[in-house]
Amino acid sequence: MTTNEVTTPIESEPARETNYLNATTGIMSWLGTLDHKRIGVMYLVSVLMSFFVAGLFAMVIRIELMWPGETIIDQDTYNQMFTLHGAIMVFLVLIPSVPASLGNFVLPIMLGAKDVAFPRLNLFSYYLWVTGAVMAVAAILFGGVDTGWTFYVPYSTTGVDDRGAMDGVFFLTMAVFVLGFSSIFTGLNFIVTIHRLRPPGMTWFKMPLFLWAIYATGILQVMATPVIGITVLLLAVERTVGIGIFDPSLGGDPILFQHFFWFYSHPAVYIMILPPMGIISELISVHSHKHIFGYRFIAFSSVAIAIFSFLVWGHHMFVSSQSPLLNVVFSAITFSVAIPSAVKVFNWLATLYKGSISLNTPMLYALSFIFLFTIAGLTGLPLAVIATDIHLHDTYFVVAHFHYTMMGGALTGMLGGIHHWWPKITGRMYSEVWGRIACGLVFVGFNVTFFTQFVLGSLGMPRRYHDYSGPGWAQETTDLFHSLHFVSTMGSFIMALGFFLTAGYLIHSLFRGRRAPANPWGGRSLEWQCPSPPPVYNFAEPPHVGDCYDFSVLEWDEQEQGYHWRRDLAHDAGEA
Amino acid sequence: MTADPGGSATKSSPIVDPRSRVAAGVLGLRLFLLSLGILFGAVLIGYVVVRLSPALESTFEIPPLPRGLWLSTLFLLCSSGTIHLALTGVRRERPRRLRVGMVATIALGWAFLATQTLCWISWAGPLRSSLAEAQRAFLVTSFYVLTGLHAIHVIGGLVPLTVVTSRAFGDRYTSADHAGVRYCAMYWHFLDVVWLVLFATLMVAA
Q1: What ipTM does the predicted assembly reach?
Q2: pLDDT along chain B (206 residues), means of 10
Q3: List of chain B residues whose C-beta atoms are within 8 Å of the C-beta of residue A115
Q4: Which B residues, 3 through 62, put their C-beta within 8 Å of a C-beta on chain A?
Q5: 3-state SS, residue A534
Q6: Per the domain annotation, does B57 fall within a domain?
Q7: Distance, CA of A273 to CA of A270 (rounded, Å)
Q8: What's the whole-model pTM score?
């Protein structure tokens, strides 16, 4: 594992004081650790490895679609590729991405605490994640899955007889079940930690906004995830015992499956996007060195999004034959989600206004988040209108929309967070120049890939199609789609280049990066008060709790290449 | 291990004060029970939706629910009482009452599972004859799925219950420090409530 490399001491440089990375050594000191920082790092490495695998599947899909007809894979393999891409990205990458990796690392330190409330449960959650990942691999080995990541019935219930009940679908749905409990325990742990471990002086409205986002996410994890758990469990029972719950041929109700599935999977979208939104609130404020604008509005908008998210699942099912009245109600409530989302965007913009903006890599990611997430939100509205949704349903417009949310939003936010906290996590600075170049490549590549898909979708290209030529396709349509798909795939190569570049300079920084100061960006939240990387116990003395967005007390130290407490104020702060 | 100026001597928890540690545990368990409650709620809603679907309108001759379920309900209700007895016992520093309460709860838990097993066996006949007919199969097998799901949680509850009981015999609990007993009692009452709702739903549906 790459985590081992982190522990390797560098001979050429003077020995540093012990920190969480070098306090104990050996693979077992990592695998059995109860330290939230190490668990966070293990999650980060695991999640990024899954991202790499699912990203490869995405590239296979894109290359297949570059030319009409069969290019590199046949249609059955293609079905498996998009299913695995979706399922791995959603359940193994995006759901645990920010909370379990960065959240685990940062949350207790932001609270000035030694660890999360239940360290053993935290490690247990990680191993549940690992179990889920192993089962996902088993699913690939046992014949793969071609149902789409949504496991819609009857795709997921037919074919049992000729393939046996214990096939890829069974293992992948059980993986989702196990991963669900990993997510529940993580959310539960964070909620209790925020309730019980806030330091004296840090009231709810003095918490960093990242913690509000994690808290709202925790509520969703605890309350929505059991529904997907029981749904996939019933699906497995249906497949093994033959009881008709969802399968219409056995007297079951397939629409019930869709209701259950989206009752979780819509809130799950916010499990993925709320924590990155929290990161953006931190990044925008810290890197423009200006107090966050509208703190309470941003905090409450996270909670509002969490509540709304339970009431809009039906907008995934406008064409599923659910009642027209329900459609209208779900459509109306869906529009209201735009309000708290826009509240956040406007407050971020107001924070930037007249700020002293440092355009370093985390800030570039934050700005690209705002741009991409705005497109994501605005293209969600035509999908919430029933009339236009019927036209756009199951086209590339939907694919482009949720990639703008999940990748342009969640993943961009996570990348911003990784760069923001990288000095704290590893104690090393990455190359700022390469960071900006890679961010630019990802931004350009992303837009070329997915903006093209908005055009493709509105022209009528259906999603999940292996081919767009042959009988039934007009030649000019095929030619048009071919050129657009070609451009889209070119964009994905640019994006891939950006990701490889990012991996390259980040790994390089572990060995050759400049030593990071305690506070390289000028952040005020508590994690910037402990050394980089933090010691095992995080804080030798209780840190100084104040307004975590008041940057007037910090000043730049040229020699240290970081910020510290203003000397004229040092006497009443204690910590610098 | 490294020096720990945080100074928490406790096993792994970062919370030094035992009282807040228990408060954190209680909050955590409540959230977990909320989560499990939603899980059971969802499966019951699913059951009711399929049960009420037009496809199942035509009435089948479903065998009446096994009478033994009333007996198992009685066992589970009593066990909720005995674990409450154990909890008040430890709070009032009466170790004998704690031990009796815990042992009785475990015994009643096993009695519940035994009765459930007998009920399942008594329904095996209808199960076999119904499997041929898809819609009728749902009515019979769903009974096994619902009660089985609950039984798994009872088995899951008996494990910590046994651990806590053996600790109770080792005089590990005092009126000030008895988090284990409290957690067990919370979980056990939860199982009781879930069973009552589940049983009522089955009765109405049948």
Answers
A1: 0.90
A2: 37 80 94 96 91 67 82 96 95 94 97 95 79 70 90 96 94 90 96 96 84
A3: 12-14
A4: 4-6, 8, 12-15, 20, 23-24, 27-28, 31-32, 34-36, 38-39, 42-43, 46, 49-50, 53, 55-56
A5: coil
A6: no
A7: 5
A8: 0.92
